[in-house]
What does this fold into?
Amino acid sequence: MEATTEDRWQKVVYDTLKKNGVTIFSYVPDAGHRMAIDLSLADPDVQSVALTTEEEGVALAAGAHLGGAKSALLMQSSGLGNCINFFSMITGGKFPFLTVLSMRGDYGEGNPWQMGMGKAVRPILDTMGFVTVEITHKDEVERAIDAACTMAFQSGEAVAVLLTQKLIGAKKF
Amino acid sequence: MAKASEAKSAPKFDLDRSVAVPQLIGEQKDFLFIGGLAGTAKDLASITKDGSNYYGMAGAMGAAVSMGLGLALARPDKKVIVATGDGELLMNVGSLATASILNPPNLRILCVDNGHYGETGYQKSHTSLGVDLEQMAIGAGIKSTMTVESQDQIAAGARMLRESNGTCFVLLRVKPEDGPKYKRDMDPASTRVRFLLGMKG
It folds into this structure.
């Protein structure tokens, strides 16, 4: 799949997850994950799972783990709020878990509807016991995703990677 | 007078879950199980003797179908039965849509519908008030579905759970009574490890 210069880092997100053994990609569609979603749909070696709500992806990851598979949940930060109760299963059950969040309500946000959840993302992740990895520049993507996969799949942690708006850019309104 | 197509009889919540669920499942060793919280977790704990082919919840209400989908995708060589209640499934009915579009041939969803929220004092659920979860599964696009609400339908339901070649949905209507009493391990971490060890064995 062709990547433009602007979204080449999105392909790096996908390639690095796959390199780390992720075979199940779940997501609610989001512009920040457009490339990874399209790549997963076109890739015969992985399962690409479109969700109706982000929390499904949390339970899906736990079930995949029980079956010996690694999965990643791709979502916009607004979807984090939909997941909170299900995170109790991840942390209580000590399930390895990896999610990649494309941030809204972050650096340079112009939509006031996004700000409430955007500001709550880090405190929620801290409260629910996650390790958080923030990416602010495209050159950090591969190393950060590698680090996140190691903490999730080797140390068995719940890990959230934040693709910040410094990386993505803020949508113009 | 109602037309034939409208002559669907009122739902019957008559069967005893302690009898009907084991009859539908048959030989439990042939399946991996995910149990939603409360009633269905106890049903499955009793049937499997809280075994290593079973992961049951006591929280995360609404998670069962999605968890079973993840397991079914990861282990296409194993038949996975998700048992969930009406209240739990209503909380995440969109998970039927997600399961349907993936349609893993090894995923079976058994909804044990007693029309009530048993764990919290038997308040009526929506399925006592006209909501039909089999129709919602059909609307989600699941091709193999059926409702079991009398003893003579059990054999067909058991056959669907055992033999379906696509994701299937069986709605079992039962009396609003507690299922089997079974003291199960409720630790989500130790039961996770138990399941993983069972998968290796």
Observations:
- Chain B is about 40% helix and 20% strand.
- Residues 43 and 163 of chain B are 21 Å apart (CA to CA).
- Chain B has a mean pLDDT of 94.
- The longest strand of chain B covers residues 79-85.
